[in-house]
């Protein structure tokens, strides 16, 4: 094993970099890209014979891995902040503004309501009777907040 460390070459780092890139493509969600780039940079440094000893190669790989991973996540987050559909994964927030009739009353202002094909936990400021026309005005996690609509 010690001989293997003493003979770390450009090819070891290139193979590691390619394997990490393949694993990244298979679905690591950005967690391996910094390490893959670090491995490829260490391969270039070894090819230029700037670092020869294996402890310095491993130290350089570790430091570059941290640096590139942090840089990747900062850049990735800046691209991914704004979405065309910010409520895509927030189903409760998608219901805000929706109006419907209560099939069952809400005792103490809490209960479950059917909206479309889903049963939702609902909260209201006051108890509501069955048949009341209500509107979803807010959401908190997977709880929808409803209020009675004035009779029109």
Strand order of the largest sheet: 1-4-5-3-2
What share of the residues does DSSP label as strand, in percent? 15-25%
- What Rg do the Cα atoms give? 28 Å
Q: Please, what is the oligomeric state?
A: single chain
Class based on secondary structure composition and strand pairing? alpha+beta
Mean pLDDT: 86
What is the β-strand count?
A: 5
**What letter string, H or E per element, gives the SSE order?**
HHHHHEEEEE
Largest β-sheet summary: 5 strands, mixed
Number of continuous helical runs: 5
How would you briefly describe this protein structure?
With 152 residues, the chain is of the alpha+beta class.
Describe what this molecule looks like in 3D.
With 152 residues, the chain is of the alpha+beta class. 43% of the residues lie in helices and 19% in strands. The chain contains five helices and five strands. The protein has a five-stranded mixed β-sheet, with no helix packed on it. A hairpin with a 2-residue loop joins strand 4 and strand 5. Helix 2 runs antiparallel to helix 3 and helix 3 packs across helix 4. The radius of gyration is 28 Å and the shape is rod-shaped. The N and C termini lie far apart (82 Å). The relative contact order is 0.10.
Spell out the blueprint of helices and strands.
Blueprint: H1 2-6, H2 10-25, H3 33-47, H4 54-79, H5 91-94, E1 99-101, E2 110-115, E3 118-123, E4 133-140, E5 143-148
Parallel strand pairs: 3-5
Antiparallel strand pairs: 1-4, 2-3, 4-5
Helix pairs in contact: 2-3, 3-4
């Amino acid at each position: 094993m010690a001989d293997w460390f003493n003979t770390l070459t450009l090819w070891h780092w290139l193979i590691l970099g390619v394997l990490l890139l393949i694993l990244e493509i298979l679905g690591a969600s950005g967690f391996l890209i910094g390490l893959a780039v670090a491995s490829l940079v260490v391969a270039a440094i070894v090819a230029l014979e700037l670092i020869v000893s294996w402890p310095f190669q491993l130290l350089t790989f570790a430091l570059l891995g941290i640096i590139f991973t942090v840089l990747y996540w900062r850049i990735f987050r800046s691209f991914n902040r704004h979405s065309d559909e910010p409520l895509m994964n927030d189903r409760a927030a998608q219901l805000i503004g929706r109006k419907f009739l209560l099939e069952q009353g809400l005792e103490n202002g809490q209960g479950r309501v059917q909206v479309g094909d889903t049963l939702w936990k609902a909260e209201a400021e006051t108890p509501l009777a069955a048949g009341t026309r209500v509107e979803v005005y807010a959401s908190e996690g997977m709880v929808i907040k409803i209020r009675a609509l004035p009779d029109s």
